[in-house]
Amino acid sequence: MLTRAHTRLQTAPAWQTFLLVMVPVAVLYLLTMQTSDVESNFDSVASALPAWRLAQFGDLDLSQFEDLPFIFDVGGSVVSNRPPGIAFLATPLYWLFGSDTFTGVTPSLLPATATAALASAGAVGVLHLVLRRLTGPKAATGAALVFAVGTSTWSISANELWPHGPAQLALALAVLGLAGGRYFGSGLAFGASLLIRPVTALIAAVAGLVQGWVSRSARVVVLIGAGSAVGLAALLLYNQTVLDTWSIAPPSYGESFVDRAQTQSPLAYLGDVVGFLFHPKYSVFVWSPFLVFTLLRLRTGWQQAPGWVRAAAVGGVIYMLIHLRLNRFWGGLAFNYRYALELLVMVAPLLFLSWQAWYGETGPTGRRLFWYSVAASVAMQVVAINVGFTNGYLV
Q1: What is the number of domains present in the chain?
Q2: How much is the pTM?
């Protein structure tokens, strides 16, 4: 029976294994997502309200919520300062399930939270398709499932309408485009990511240039750049129309990042980099310890990696190094990590190749230690999901 199931999995077409990954992950994420509005973070509330308003009234006027954080008066209009892509993505579920009936300070945030859960599950499913470009369906499925429950994709991206779940989905689609040589489509996906999280424009620029270099083709750079430019143009048009500025980093949400980059000392920056990696409360290697094992044959993984894997990884790393210059590494959380989530999607193919090289040559003890680390990673994300904090603004 097990042999027959293994054979079916190994020969299954991509669409079947995509569903095999995405559907149970989506169910898990929906069952464990944040359901208490009063425990929602400021960021997710400010992302959800424009979606609700757009679905219910066809505009972005949030004057009734002007006392909440991240809601600003811009030229006489009271709007959210969150990037537009997050709200646009959540609007369909508010059309279907939204209500103008308030149970508290805000309308229900559940449609927005469900959007985050579904987008995050979609990101895991697409990442599985990316990994199928490097390995068989069984290994790609297993790796995607470990990513789904062993990283804060579960406890952050899928738990509330942070920008990270939608951005992870867009970036996973961009990497899939790179892997398949669909460069304009990859650029469009990069453009979608910067509508959700504008700083990911750095990933598009670096990954596009590296992919062009490894391909020895200016055409690749032009196609990725042209697709990305669609998202950039849409973001600038939104900023001008709603926030009265053509800047990609308007005062309402981008000015503080620019100021920090100009004033942060080299020592403080080094502290952010070290904290990002190893801080006991906020780092990726503490809250997802299985990732340590993906670094043990990084050189081998790099040597084996196709050009698109290298382009994605370099884009992700450069993005993260600049991001740490722009923003605090701990992300305003009580514990766990969130800023690494976009990076993890970009470097996942390279980390998989590194892990595969190590796992294939290590002994039983090494393999047991790896699976213990996976179990520890899952347990820590379960803890993160089940510890709530009351948002005093929403009580």
Answers
A1: 1
A2: 0.96
